[in-house]
Structures are given as structure tokens and as C-alpha cells.
Write a structure and sequence with these properties.
The chain has 375 residues and is α/β, with parallel strands linked by helices. Helix content is 24%, strand content 29%. It starts with 10 loop residues before the first strand and ends with a strand.
Length: 375
Amino acid sequence: GVSFEVERGGVLGVIGRNGAGKSTLLKIMSRVTSPTRGSIRLRGRLASLLEVGTGFHPDLSGRENVFLNGAILGMTRAEVARKFDEIVAFAEVEKFIDTPVKRYSSGMYVRLAFAVAAHLEPEVLVVDEVLAVGDVAFQGKCLGKMKEVSGEGRTVLFVSHNMGAITSLCGKALLLSSGQLVAHGKTAEVVDAYLDSTRDVAGADRLAQAKGIGRAWLADAYVSSQGQERVEAVQVQNPFRVHLEVACQERVKAVEVGVRVERQNGQRVFTTGAAPVDGSLDLEPGETHLSFEVPGGFLAPDVYYLTVAIHRPNVEILASHDRLLKVHVLETGSGMWKYSDHDFGCVLVTIPWRIGRDPGETTGVPGAGRGSAEV
């Protein structure tokens, strides 16, 4: 029941929870997986980047893999050679272009794979969340390249959990849930539908459903005010505390308990993790209470959602709850109310200013200026 069309030059975002069918859809479009029924009609060449190293041979060098990938995409050797220097420069792997790619880091792998897919002029470019492997600077380059590709009249399908990237890049989006098409239309409307769907199950119900599953689980989670009452709203100048009750049946070593804070539109603000300096936290059988405080006057007035995960870094995820908690930071004196029609970011900062007639003069009121910064 998933039917849609993408016009030439359109940029379509594909969003949904984990397991919704996003990657499966792209694999069917890329002819990696055959559909059980139905059909997909493509006009023009399609290049896809579905996972790190798609279409690469580990024993071949970066140079050889560029030409191999070009051949897979239907390009002639001359066409690949014409674009070769541009691809290598974009991927920033000049020093290692003649090294077997099995010796590349995951970041180098994905940089070269994306550069090949984007530069060999496919009519349709399909990109999965694989870009999350790259560093922040490279992700920015990729988003810029996808905008450039769409501006040249080519089509882009983009899967991401980053709603900020989806909103800035995609004119339209579709929302999948359990293999079904839930919404399709303007990006802002589809993103709103997705964010609403993540709040369908109350936090307490979600925790109850996960109780006792696995070696460790989240028994309770809540936000409290200074007076320790459970709240969903706080005044902008007041701090609030996030409380987590982690339970486990056996001793679990080298664990991190992490919380990601994001705005209502999906833009990530910051992530914090509970672990000692050496990076390991050992959980004993029973319940362990963890908490941290967000200072007052730090988050700008807005609605924020907190995602909680218990994991052994790069080893296993023990529990994960997307947008489990909500806290509404109310405008009660931040000074930003005067600019309610503008978005100046999500973090409030107080920066000392000097006011005078020359750079060394200190007359004025240091610390009086209030600005905003975005993390």
C-alpha cells in the first residue's frame, strides 16, 4: 500500500521510526531487494548510498573502486575519468586513494562512497541515514551537494532521523509506519505528523511495556522542579532535574546512560551521558537512581523532548526510548519575548560586553548583554 510519485528535480524526505520500512523501500528502489508485489518505474540512472561501502570491493584501492562503482552505475570509463579528480577532492582521501578500502575508517569509506554516488551525474540519487557516519563538516558538505544536485534538475530521495536536515533540504516528505504510508505531502506537515506519532504512547505505558525485558531496563523517568515535584513545564529562569531509575537483573559492566535533548521540530540541542571519567559505569542488580540538572536561563523558551538510552558504547543497546519525556520551558522573563516572530536559537547565553570609544575602554555595564546561541 505504499504508492507515491517523485517529480524530476524534486527532493523527497522519507521519515519514520526504526523498523518502519524506510531502508527496505530504498533497497527495492535500488534493485537490491525485489518487491513481494507491485512495481517501481524509474526514468534515468539511479545511484544509491544505502550503507557504508555499498558496491565497494574491500581488496581494491579507492581509485579502482571509483571506476568499479562508475561501471555499476552505467558510466563509461571516460565519464568516470572526467569526474575522478573532483570525486577524490570532495571525499578528501587524496593521500589514500591507492590504498585498499578495507583499510579505510568508516568515515573515509562513506566519504568516498557518497562522492562517487553524487558526482557521477545520476538522474536519481538515493541516500540513507548512512551520512550520520561522517563528521559534522562532511555532513554539511553532503547536504550542500544534495541541494546542488536537485538544483540541476536531478531527483533526490533522502532518509534521515534528523528532522532539521529533512526540513531544510526536502520540499516534500512521506511518513512510513510498519510498512504503511501514513502521510505524504509538504515537509512541515509530514514532520508534524511524525512528531505527533512519537507521542502516541504515554511515557509510563512505554516503560511498563519494556519492564523486565533484557539485562537492563528503564523502570522510571521524570522531570522535577526545584521542589522535586514531577512537572512537564518550568519557568525559563528556573532549573529542572531529570531523574532516571535504571533496573537490571544482573551486574552489567561498562554501561552508559545517555539523554538527548531536542526541540519540538526535531533539532538536537545537546546529549549528555552518565559515566565516570574513565567512561565506564557498572550497574549492580536492582535499581540505580541517576539524575542531572539543567540550569535555569539556559534553554530558550520552547518545547523540548528527551530521548533516553542505556547502552554499552559501540557494543549493544540495552534500552532505548525515543522522545520519552517532554518539558515545556515557559517564557517568564528571558527577554526573548520581544522577538517571538524570530528563531534566534535554543540556548540563552549571557556574554560580557564592553561599551566605549576604543577597544581597551571598559565603561558601560559588562554582562548586561543577553544574546542567544545555537548548539
